[in-house]
Amino acid sequence: MKLAGAEAVRYFSKPDPAKAGILIFGSDAMRVALRRQEVIAALLGPNGEAEMRMTRMSGADLRKNEGLALDAMREQGFFPGQRVVFVEEATDTAAPGLTHALKAWRPGDAHIVVTGGELKGKSALKSLFEANPLTYAVGLYDDPPSREEIESLLSRAGLRSIDPQAMTDLVALSRAIDPGDFRQTLEKISLYKHGDATPLTASEVDLMAPATIEAGVDEVLMAAADGRDADVARLMRRLEGQGVNAVTLCIGALRHFRVLHGAAVSPDSLQKAWGVPFKAKEAMGRQASRWGERRLEDALRQLIETDMTLRSSSKAPTLAVMERTLLRLAKMV
Q1: What are the residues whose beta carbons fall under 8 Å from the beta carbon of 46, sequence distance 6 or more?
Q2: How confident is the model at residue 274, as a pLDDT?
Q3: Where is the signal peptide, in residue numbers (predicted)?
Q4: β-pairing verdict for 2-3 and 21-25
Q5: pLDDT in tens, 95-126
């Protein structure tokens, strides 16, 4: 059976041990791994792995020996309690072995947890778990986590009291960084707020947010939007030394100027914009007012043209093309 959305989020934290198993797949390996860890921890409890109630194998192992999953599923351990057979990096070549195991599954057998990468619509592995009434298949796609997912993560991190603006910023942060970094940020926040009954504030979220190479990208984009062309040239030299990709920089610029355009049309939209650091919102609000709607539309047209050039077969040095566009934008202010 298929699981998606809020229903899947609830199931991850409270899987049904009376079911035979679950397949979790998607192109983002970190996101898949985090959900797999959550499901297995909920099934086994805190001592499951120490009590050797989990058997781990790869999809390649199962391809070589189709009986592995069935044998592991039927094994009886020394310690009582729920058992799990975890099959990682499974592809369609693991489907025959899992088919045998699921056909033979009976209540009391181990729960089968399978993870895989991006699976096609007609994938044999995906079809196997979707068609069986005793199993679930969950596809994790590149969509940002929902508010319910974030609230679930916050609850498990021990955070109960949160200012509305802090929640808005956490939603934005979750869309700007990868799931592993976001989970670590929540853990950092929970340690910071441990024993503190006051609500989590937006400034505290900003304080705990990770610093990455994006900070350098944001810096040059802020310089361009502020009209500081000398700083644009200087910062571009630094980014070039760090190996920043021109297309990545252009995507960031498009995002930045789209946020400014949205703020020029509707100032309230800036507070809800994803990927905008708390400290940058006031400065970007001033930028939006200074640029105005029409000039921002012109800036976006230039950035779209640059993006097309960067992705074309042009022989022009890509970072030089991007720098020229940013300098042109800086001179528009």
Answers
A1: none
A2: 55
A3: none
A4: unpaired
A5: 999 999 999 999 999 999 999 998 988 999 99
Q: What's the predicted TM-score (pTM) here?
A: 0.54
Segments of the chain with pLDDT less than 70: 142-144, 157, 175-180, 210-215, 271-279
Q: How far is CA 154 from CA 50, 74, 174, 285, 310, in A?
A: 27, 37, 12, 29, 40
pLDDT digits (tens, 9 = 90+) for 30-77: 788 889 999 999 999 888 878 889 999 999 999 999 999 999 999 887
- Taking the C-alpha atoms of residue 64 and residue 46, their distance in angstroms, rounded to an integer, is 32
Q: What is the C-alpha separation between 37 and 47, in angstroms, rounded? A: 14
Fold of 2-139: Rossmann fold (3.40.50)
Match domain 214-330 to its CATH number in 3.40.50.150, 3.20.20.30, 1.10.530.10, 1.20.272.10.
1.20.272.10
d(CA 28, CA 38): 16
Phi, psi of 154 (to 5 degrees): -65, -40
Equal CATH topology for 2-139 and 214-330: no
pLDDT value of position 332: 93
Would residue 71 be called left, alpha or beta, if left means φ above 0 and alpha means ψ between -120 and 50 degrees? alpha
